[in-house]
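Page 42, continued from yesterday. The earlier attempt failed because a stray header line got pasted into the input along with the sequence. Redoing it now with the clean sequence only.
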Amino acid sequence: MITIVSCRHFPDDERVYHRELLTLKKLGQPIQYFTRSNSELDISDDLVRHKNCPAKEFSIKEYITFLKNAFLETPPTIFHFHEYDLLPLARLAKLRFNAQVIYDVHEDIRFLGATFSTRHPLLRNFLISLRTMKEQYHLECVDRVILANPIVGDCIFRDRGFDLLILQNYPFLSFVSNQSNDGCRGMTILYHGHLGPERGIQELVESIIIVRDTIPDVSLILLGTFRTSEFQDYIISMIEKNDLSDNIKWIPQVPHQAVWNYLNEAAIGVIPFRENPLTLNNTPTKLFEFMAAGCGIVASDLPPSRHHVSDSIQWSEPGSVQDIADGLLRLLQNPELLENQSSQNRELITNQLNWECIEPILLDLYKSLEISV
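This time it went through. Structure tokens are written below.
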């Protein structure tokens, strides 16, 4: 039984479900899919048996206990999990059920800790070391590691001898838009994804104050969930204090499929990330989605994005409000440049950076594991 488990993603997560799970359905085998979220989505079908545990009712520890009992009823033969928190299940799946275990690493825990921890640096580094030791212990029971980003610098998994697979979050070819973007999409800007200070949301809002002086009807949509309620209150207050309510609209989380409606209507997609360990090592999925949708792009000049595209983006210095504003104005006031850069980006997706190009890697991995089960 193929068993796919996540504990911090929505059931219709763009990577876990829309890319990997839908690809794995091509194998024609039954899949049990476990999620922990406050979504009420049930995406069970003829091949997929989906069970969601409400996050408000299940702690991570309680969720793991639930999964252990579920595995007793239907033992996994291939166990594919998506978060560090679930590593103890890798040991159970391997030692109790002799399953093939796949660890799908979206974000390295060392980069997460270095970016989000507010503790004293010495304590922060000590805790990161403890988490690393725990990860190394459980890696003994992991057969394969998949990374969502190209390797940058040191890599604990490579050092442990894993034959790494890189599966980036490229979009499907079916998502490549044929809608023009020569000024016909209006003065519209989109940011979608998590909303937190590390992602430059404050700088983005401040840039709209500058843009509005030249383009009064500029419109920004912030689509996603705020990382903390405190930051949400801060940004909403900033919008109100600067009379930006007519220019900036916040839309909470929507189903993944609905995001493309916003992508296809936006003239510009913006990635205003600050520079930190996470953004220096992770490629933003929204980069590829903006490209496929034919949006012009204003993005912080950081190595992961530069790895994929160079001259068809308006680059901004991380943390620079003025640079973000300048990039937005340059595209909004130059329809020919906007259309040319949008077309270049769509061609990159069509010719290279699409899921169809890399999904055989995932299918071949599963086929090789099935042989050894």
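Notes: The chain has a mean pLDDT of 92.
Reminder to self: strip header lines before submitting.
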